Amino acid sequence: MAAPFFSTPFQPYVYQSQEDTITPFQILGGEAQVVQIMLKPQEKVIAKPGSMCYMSGSIEMDNTYTPEQEVGVVQWILGKSVSSIVLRNTGQNDGFVGIAAPSLARILPLDLAMFGGDILCQPDAFLCSVHDVKVVNSVYQRHRARNIAAAGAEGFLRQRLSGQGLAFIIAGGSVVQKNLEVGEVLTIDVSCIAALTPSINFQIKYNAAPVRRAVFGGDNVVTATLTGPGIVFIQSLPFHRLSQRIARSVTSPNMRENPRLLVQIGLFIFLAYVVIVSSLILTEM
């Protein structure tokens, strides 16, 4: 049963848990990757719904409710999942499962024991896990958005992974790992942060006024200043950037070249109206 796992020329990784349990896994592909995990009898993988790509005949799949995911009724109605899938090897021999990234993303294996048992990730970064991993999704509360400086890391990185197991997360494009020393400062676009350790000091900054953002664009207007010590994983192509570019390519030519055309036209009409009214008032005077 282990033969399919070694059918590619890439050498597999081996993860050893705190209980000395060894779990081999292999990350396949270049852009839209798949992680293939070997499971001994009765071993299991917790994965994101809809992420299972293939599995051996001895693997059974079931859904489980995850109460730690703080999802309200409105989010649930809009399609936010409150469950996970459990893939368990019920056979007598080793089995395997293939978990696929949901987009053009890379899969990062994170041994939480090496990160102090806690790491903050971008929303929906979690893909699957082996052994002791707890995933908590926090809701982005509106009162936090009013004070962007008070939002901090948890205002944007709303998925927390904790425990001592092995977690797999997804990141878009190429991934760079930066190890920040004590007092070392790094400025980064907020959307490019895939994950970081909680030991990093996280400060948010808006680089443009609201009117300027509406007229001239919203790219790179929200940056984060990270101060070490800690580790940060940087993604070159966040999913929302990719989706925006795809959306622009399928719109009309004018909207593709300037997706904020309606805002600019509306602002021009408003300013013209103010100028005309002011001229009439000054003329009557």
UniProtKB/TrEMBL annotation:
Keywords, alphabetical: Membrane, Transmembrane, Transmembrane helix
Membrane spanning stretches: 261-282
SUPFAM superfamilies with a match to the protein in the record: TRAP-like
Keyword Transmembrane found: yes
InterPro entries noted in UniProt: AIM24, AIM24_sf, Trp_RNA-bd_attenuator-like_dom
Protein name: Altered inheritance of mitochondria protein 24, mitochondrial
Organism listed in the record: Arabidopsis arenosa (Sand rock-cress)
Lineage: Eukaryota, Viridiplantae, Streptophyta, Embryophyta, Tracheophyta
